[in-house]
Write a structure and sequence with these properties.
By secondary structure, the chain is an alpha+beta fold. The protein has a single domain, classed as Alpha-Beta Complex (endopeptidase fold (from Nostoc punctiforme)), CATH 3.90.1720.10. The chain is built from seven helices and six strands. It has a six-stranded antiparallel β-sheet. β3 and β4 form a beta hairpin. The radius of gyration is 15 Å and the shape is globular.
């Protein structure tokens, strides 16, 4: 998966293909979300109007980390980006907030610092854990939660033939509780 054509399609075409779909959003839900989200929480989402949602295996197609002050850090086709929680929610068809079962404020802030320190990181088009300085969305969370307190299942192969953590694998992490879930 490293030909120039694959890289071009993955970076330039797929992230820009949207289908017309505009679910009615409940802005009371967004207000509630702001009251419960805490730094270090993991976010998962499904977005039905993106072509990439059809390609990523599982019912969840994206994962990110909430870093506080209304901001989310995520890995997208163009690489590392920081967006507002409002924008992350607005562009999601369904969303969940996951928190470590044994939440620790110091560790959560440390994860946020790690996420912010990765600014400028490229997107990993090969979806290989530890293979390069590039990251994909779920791998970002694995790097931030370096002790794997979330208890991610890294055997989520998805037919790739190597260890892979999918967004659905993040959603099903054994060491997290779902504090908000519209999936």
């Amino acid at each position: 998966m490293s030909t120039w054509f694959y890289r071009f399609v993955s970076r330039e075409i797929i992230p820009r293909v949207y289908f017309w779909f505009n679910p009615i959003k409940d802005y009371g839900e967004l207000a509630y979300l702001h009251t419960i989200v805490q730094p270090g929480d993991f976010l998962t989402s499904t977005t039905w109007n993106k072509l990439s949602s059809l390609i990523i295996p599982g019912k969840i197609d994206h994962a990110a980390i909430y870093v506080g002050e209304g901001m989310v850090v995520e890995m997208v086709g163009t690489g590392w980006q920081r967006v507002s929680l409002d924008d992350f929610w607005r562009h999601s068809t369904n969303m969940a907030v996951l928190r470590h079962t044994y939440w620790c404020e110091n560790y959560s802030w440390e994860m946020c610092g790690r996420a912010n320190s990765l600014e400028g990181t490229r997107y990993d088009l090969q979806f290989r854990i530890d293979a390069s300085p590039a990251l994909y969305c779920s791998e970002l969370l694995l790097v931030c939660d370096y002790e794997n307190r979330a208890k991610f299942n890294l055997g989520d192969l998805a037919g790739l033939g190597y260890k892979y953590l999918s967004p659905t694998g993040v959603f099903n992490a054994r060491g997290c509780e779902k504090v908000f879930n519209t999936h």
